[in-house]
């Protein structure tokens, strides 16, 4: 049974609020703070408006003073995280309270400490789809790097609250997200303790092997069914550009394991192997294709329950000019897909199609009356 494709999106105006979060202190590479500017510069606002949406750009989050907070051991730049994410959360809440879908541009993935916090406060029942090469499920006690961008999920999860020490300056943040409302897609670099946590709490995760065996269609269907079985939750979609293969999005910086190489070496998937850090960082090979990423976005859009999107870890300082442009185009395509781009390009609406010379099919005409 074949049903005609629906192009509903062109007729449904969505209210979108863009929030830039040029935050880079959740990891060690320079340049990820230029992400929001670069994605805007690639034409994001214009592209979303051309879909007919009501787009308001709320600019970039800034914070000036960093108080002398003593954070947990092995959580780098804790003070910055605590202060900046409070600001992110309050702005993202404001955007959502105006009835807008909050589109946050990172920055590194620690920005979700603020954005997801806003979503779980703006809605009663929230589902999170986390598209990423990494699980970002470490606590300071388990983190191999001390980088906050590897910790947001652990910080947001209600089930993991007891695994954290008291966090001074973060009283605004209440871990509210049940891990049962979360699904990962695209994992290929999971640390040992993250894996243990995933097993212990039975977290729904589709790694690259699963995407391979189920296909992206099956993967997204199962992920959505898991996080939102009764089709009533607000959906927060957090997309780390490093979920895409390095060929599709080279300008991103997290050192990680090379899945293919590890398998060849007969190593366990959870034994993490790092590339050289800093300027030599490279994206993780063996990831999602851009088409697969777009499919995820389209399917979440089709639910009609998208509340917030993050697009993070685009680093315009990494790679050649061509790498940067490839990465930015990928980011842009993902985002227009999340907001209902037409799969076949900008097709005219049926009513706009000229039937005979000079005549167009009006709504009335479509019912067979005089045109
Ligand atoms: N959002 C990211 N790129 N996260 C990378 C995390 C890498 C590693 N698992 C860590 O915790 O340090």
UniProtKB/TrEMBL annotation:
GO cellular component: cytosol; nucleus
Keywords: Arginine metabolism, Hydrolase, Manganese, Metal-binding, Signal, Urea cycle
Listed InterPro entries: Arginase (IPR014033), Ureohydrolase (IPR006035), Ureohydrolase_dom_sf (IPR023696)
Pathway: Nitrogen metabolism; urea cycle; L-ornithine and urea from L-arginine: step 1/1
Catalytic activity: L-arginine + H2O = urea + L-ornithine
E.C. code: 3.5.3.1
GO molecular function annotations of the record: arginase activity; manganese ion binding
Top-level enzyme category: hydrolase
Keyword set includes Membrane: no
Recorded superkingdom: Eukaryota
GO process terms (BP): arginine metabolic process; urea cycle
Cofactor(s) this protein requires: Mn(2+)
Protein family per UniProt: Belongs to the arginase family.
Protein name: Arginase
Highest classification ranks of the organism: Eukaryota, Metazoa, Ecdysozoa, Arthropoda, Hexapoda
